[in-house]
């Protein structure tokens, strides 16, 4: 029996350090320039050295190698670079070493952590001031000021330049993020506007057409189930009347949608003044089901109501009558409208019970639409069974400032 060796767990791959190509090129050119200057005998410290001339190449090569880490380990490059440039001052000196150090200071501010980017310009500025004061106090010659100037050029200047560039980059990034956020908010607003408009169109379409289609469904069922020429003729007349009116309202809605951006005459908006005609049509449509409709208008004369509130109240009554035609038991449907204390109250009471005649199917969208209309205006809506009645109550704010807010 042969044993199969258990598979070894996959070994973790070690992260391989790969310097940026630009950093490699910059380090190579800097070291090459320093070697050329050293070979030509161009030194930076003159006779102030304690080591052989070749010792100046050691800080140069060290800083050139550290330059490969200028993006990934800026803190290390600053520490090693500072030690290297100080060590270079005890040799014949090399300008290449100084130039690499200035780049390391610049890169430390640009690519380092925010705390380092804030501290380096301040610390190098303080070092520059301290070196200047110490040089003047020690040498007591005007030329001592040049030591401070050179220190500032080598350390403070690159750090300040890096801080300026970083601030510009962060400002540009912040502006880009703000632009993206603004675009996102605009897209969200657009989406919400589209959703709200679709919901409004759905409510309007349902409220305008459902009443006529319910009457058509009820009377067509009656015409098919009752074998009476007179009943069938009466039902067909109601069906034709509701079909023509429903088609006219559909055409008006389609015209509004097509010509929304064009100049057109404003369409008449339904108002509470049309409740008598609305109930009159409901009486005709509900006669086959044994329904009667009564309106009780308790509004004081001459008291205006904002147009959005009036339209919502009209649509709530219209939808309640449609539901009564579909589901109410034979009896009287009572509609009441009152206006008091800045509130418009709509009440519709329908008989609730078994219905012997034909019924039209319901989807529940009517109650949802009435509730949405009421809540959009900041009102209260209730609907439910109360004994032998199905009651609908809508309380709407009837003041202009409340609707506008």
Largest sheet: 5 strands, mixed
Question: What percentage of amino acids are in beta strands?
Answer: 5-15%
Rg:
44 Å
> Largest sheet, order of strands side by side?
1-2-3-5-4
Domain unit count: 2
Number of distinct beta strands: 5
Can you characterise this structure?
With 405 residues, the protein is α+β, with helices and mostly antiparallel strands. It has two domains: 21-184, no CATH class; 273-405, Histidine kinase-like ATPase, C-terminal domain (Heat Shock Protein 90), CATH 3.30.565. The protein has helices at residues 21-39, 57-66, 74-88, 95-111, 114-139, 144-225, 229-258, 275-286, 307-327, 365-376, 400-404; strands at 291-297, 331-340, 343-351, 380-386, 389-397. It has a five-stranded mixed beta sheet with strand order 1-2-3-5-4. Helix 9 links the parallel strand 1 and strand 2 (331-340). Helix 3 (74-88) packs antiparallel against helix 4 (95-111), helix 5 (114-139) packs antiparallel against helix 6 and helix 6 (144-225) crosses helix 10. The longest helix is centred in the middle third of the chain and has 82 residues, at 144-225. Residues 4-13 have low confidence and may be disordered.
Summarize the structure.
The protein is α+β, with helices and mostly antiparallel strands and 405 residues long. 61% of the residues lie in helices and 10% in strands. The model is unreliable at 4-13 (pLDDT under 50).
Comma- or semicolon-separated keywords:
405 residues, alpha+beta, single chain, 2 domains
């Amino acid at each position: 029996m042969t044993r199969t060796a258990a598979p070894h767990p996959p070994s973790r791959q070690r992260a391989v350090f790969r310097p940026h190509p630009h950093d490699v090129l910059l380090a190579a050119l800097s070291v090459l320039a320093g070697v050329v200057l050293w070979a030509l005998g161009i030194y930076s410290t003159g006779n102030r050295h304690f080591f052989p001339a070749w010792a100046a190449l050691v800080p140069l090569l060290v800083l050139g190698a550290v330059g490969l880490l200028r993006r990934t380990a800026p803190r290390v490059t600053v520490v090693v670079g500072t030690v290297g440039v100080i060590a270079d001052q005890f040799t014949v000196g090399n300008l290449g070493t100084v130039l690499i150090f200035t780049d390391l200071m610049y890169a430390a501010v640009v690519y380092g952590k925010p705390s380092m980017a804030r501290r380096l310009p301040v610390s190098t500025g303080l070092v520059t001031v301290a070196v200047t004061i110490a040089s003047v106090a020690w040498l007591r010659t005007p030329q001592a000021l040049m030591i401070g100037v050179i220190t500032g050029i080598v350390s403070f200047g690159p750090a300040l330049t890096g801080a300026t560039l970083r601030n510009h980059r962060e400002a540009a990034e912040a502006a880009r993020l703000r632009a993206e956020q603004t675009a996102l908010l605009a897209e969200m607003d657009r989406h919400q506007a589209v959703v709200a408009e679709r919901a409004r169109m759905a409510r309007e379409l349902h409220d305008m057409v459902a009443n006529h289609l319910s009457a058509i469904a009820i009377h067509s069922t009656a015409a098919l189930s009752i074998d009476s020429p007179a009943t069938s003729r009466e039902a067909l007349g109601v069906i034709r009347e509701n079909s023509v009116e429903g088609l006219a309202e559909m055409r008006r809605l389609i015209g509004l949608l097509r010509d929304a951006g064009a100049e057109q005459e404003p369409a008449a908006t339904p108002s509470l003044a049309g409740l008598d005609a609305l109930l009159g049509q409901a009486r005709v449509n509900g006669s086959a089901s044994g329904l009667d409709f009564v309106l009780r208008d308790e509004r004081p004369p001459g008291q205006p109501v904002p147009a959005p509130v009036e339209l919502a109240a009209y649509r709530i009554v219209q939808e309640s009558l449609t539901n009564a035609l579909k589901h109410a038991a034979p009896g009287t449907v009572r509609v009441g409208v009152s206006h008091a204390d800045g509130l418009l109250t709509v009440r519709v009471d329908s008989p609730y019970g078994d219905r012997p005649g034909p019924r039209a199917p319901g989807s529940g969208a009517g109650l949802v639409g009435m509730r949405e209309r009421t809540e959009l205006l900041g009102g209260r809506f209730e609907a439910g069974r109360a004994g032998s009645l199905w009651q609908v109550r809508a309380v709407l704010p009837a003041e202009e400032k409340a609707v506008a807010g």
